[in-house]
């Protein structure tokens, strides 16, 4: 899945080369200084309309301003935890860098160890560093059952220079994207997909509406939704997150970033970002759960490569709707709830962002579908993915961030005209 480039501002000079730092206390001081510096960049407008300069937004709440329980690690500690960053314990690789499974001592009981996922920043310059700072900035101050927990971070130095790493809670059942893939040996049953949709909606609702500031995720997609040992879905990878518009502003103007196939059309075309951009991405994700297909898949026949284009002819006719259902699903008891979920997706995919529902409204609608489905067709839970399977399978798909063309191929977005389905009663 291709990604757009990521920018936190248009400053040509960028950040100065990081000074050599050693020791745990220096690492913490360094991070707090970076929080304060990057906070202004995080909140500044990249490209705004006429009144932008007159609206200076308050600094993004950071570790230096709010209490945080994040642990500060050193490179030697994380080397030991990951067997020297061995490929044998590598969980995946993305635009940020590589992610490894590790074991660290528990704070509550040092004699025991807990499993974690360690993300190591790739050697690709200051842009990745800003994503790292944003992750710490966001996950250091927010906490919710449907957001992946950040355990701690590392901003240490060794013989190769500054090392930037993040340590998360370990999510043994991998990503939703993995289980929707045709390569997965454990396709998600429909009841589990509904619960995932509900969990993801809860996470977005919290970010958008349940704090004294708003966070726009900006890169909501199935590969950024991870599953814990109980199959609870949690949002992850906040490197592209952005503080929502302040009072008096309707949007945030930014460089366009995100993932092809998930980005809202108005954001792609204008760079104007609102929480409704995440709502669009969530609508795409619902159809991903329904169809089992990726939003853009170049390996499919030409007429089926763009999921939203492919499904349109089948939405207005209930008899044709079953054509788009994931063939790996047991269809006997899911048809009605799948149609209802498609109706919710269509509301999220309305062309005018002002007419899309808020995530709290989406959550309410999805919850109704979940409750009606569970009462009529409960299903047993899936078995957890074992570590041996994780080690033997290929690593996660590489989501490299690429420079977006001046004239992106997004005409298909303009063609989207969702039709409401008539659900069976």
Automatic annotation (TrEMBL):
GO terms for molecular function: ATP binding; protein serine/threonine kinase activity. Belongs to the protein kinase superfamily. Ser/Thr protein kinase family. One of its GO terms (cellular component) is plasma membrane. It is found in: Cell membrane. Residues 40-52 have a biased composition (Polar residues). This is non-specific serine/threonine protein kinase. It comes from Phaseolus vulgaris (Kidney bean). ATP binds at residue 119. It is a peripheral membrane protein. Its EC number is 2.7.11.1. GO terms for biological process: defense response; pattern recognition receptor signaling pathway; regulation of salicylic acid biosynthetic process. Interacts with FLS2. Keywords: ATP-binding, Cell membrane, Kinase, Membrane, Nucleotide-binding, Phosphoprotein, Plant defense, Transferase. Residues 22-52, 374-397 are annotated as: Disordered. Residues 85-370 form the Protein kinase domain. It comes from the Eukaryota. It catalyses: L-seryl-[protein] + ATP = O-phospho-L-seryl-[protein] + ADP + H(+); L-threonyl-[protein] + ATP = O-phospho-L-threonyl-[protein] + ADP + H(+). It holds the Pfam family Pkinase.
